[in-house]
Specification:
about 325 residues, mainly alpha, Ribonucleotide Reductase, subunit A, about 70% helix, binds fe (ii) ion
């Protein structure tokens, strides 16, 4: 099947009545599990009414945060930028689902929920004074301006494979960054735990959405998944020092290729990839190649782990160029 008829088929599946019904059910499940929304100002007071204790609270926050290790700060910066990439993600989703369906409604709901993640983390970083904030803002501006146009952006199926993996990856990364910060800063741990809980619910939505896609078009869905699963890039890939940020998270055990391998194994299990039957030759080949991905990731993870045994010195503008070794 050529690319344009393949994509036309993908649009047909995603915009069809059957998929719209599935998305309606998944959205209702998502809203019933949400357990009440939270907002940044519930963690960090921002209202008009100032009470005398506010100054003391702010001082205590800065004092606790001043003890955060540099590698935790760097991880927080990367996690904030991942969240602040939201304009890119909203656009990618809107490009493949439009707005006149349940998936269009989901994109708006999901965007509103995700927007709080960037808000609360940025508010925290600003109030706690953990960065050279102007440097942080300049780097964020450049990163948003650089855009994010991955080669798979025009493929509706690939976009949803990507979001499934990305949600789980961010859940792990926020959760682990929070755990690492918790000894110094319990409030940050609390915030990151809330964000990670949202990511877990988003992951559950996309995971089951794509399972339904595979049920409806197993061959097309597996061919698309096979192109995304081996490796996912985050929008920050355009940043000149992005590789160093990623390496800090890997060396700190916050997010590693081994974690990614576990993410891939989890989605393959849930989607029942290895047991799908009656596939056409293209689908069968994709199934075989997908099932071999975890082993390839394992080998790559071992190679990286050997390399990480030697300590390395890092320096980042967002923490005033201070050096640290990890
Ligand atoms: Fe998020
Ligand atoms: Fe999310």
């Amino acid at each position: 099947m050529n690319t344009s008829s393949r994509y036309a088929r993908q649009f047909e599946v995603l915009r069809g009545k059957a998929m719209d019904d599935v998305v309606g059910v998944l959205m209702r499940r998502h809203e019933s599990r949400r357990g009440g929304l939270w907002y940044s100002s519930q963690f960090l007071p921002a209202g008009e009414v100032v009470v005398p204790e506010d100054d003391e609270t702010a001082r205590d926050l800065r004092k606790r945060a001043s003890t955060l290790p540099d590698w935790v700060r760097v991880s927080i910066a990367l996690n904030i930028w991942t969240e602040e990439g939201l304009p890119h993600f909203h656009r990618l989703l809107a490009g493949v689902v439009g707005y006149d369906s349940n998936l269009g409604k989901w994109n708006n709901l999901w965007t509103a929920e995700e927007d709080r993640h960037g808000n609360v983390l940025r508010d925290y970083a600003r109030a706690a004074r953990i960065f050279d904030f102007l440097s942080f803002e300049i780097q964020q501006f450049e990163y948003i301006r650089a855009g994010f146009n991955p080669p798979w952006a025009a493929s509706p199926f690939k976009v949803f494979v990507y979001t499934t993996l990305q949600e789980k990856a961010t859940q792990i990364s926020h959760g682990r960054t929070g755990a690492a910060a918790g000894r110094h800063e319990p409030l940050l741990e609390q915030i990151l735990r809330k964000v990670a809980e949202d990511e877990a619910r988003h992951y559950a939505f996309y995971l089951d959405l794509y399972k339904a896609v595979i049920d409806q078009d197993p061959n097309g869905a597996l061919v698309a998944a096979n192109e995304i699963l081996p490796h996912i890039d985050m929008p920050g890939v355009s940043m000149p020092d992005f590789g160093d940020y990623v390496e800090v998270e890997a060396r700190a055990g916050i997010y590693t290729l081994r974690n990614y391998k576990a993410v891939v194994e989890g989605v393959l299990r849930h989607w029942g990839v290895s047991t799908r039957q009656n596939l056409d030759p293209e689908g069968t080949l994709a199934q075989e190649e997908i099932c071999a991905i975890p082993e390839r990731l394992e080998k790559a993870a071992q190679r990286i782990e050997r390399r990480l045994l030697n300590k390395k010195t890092f320096s980042f503008r967002v923490i005033h160029g201070r050096e640290f070794t990890l």
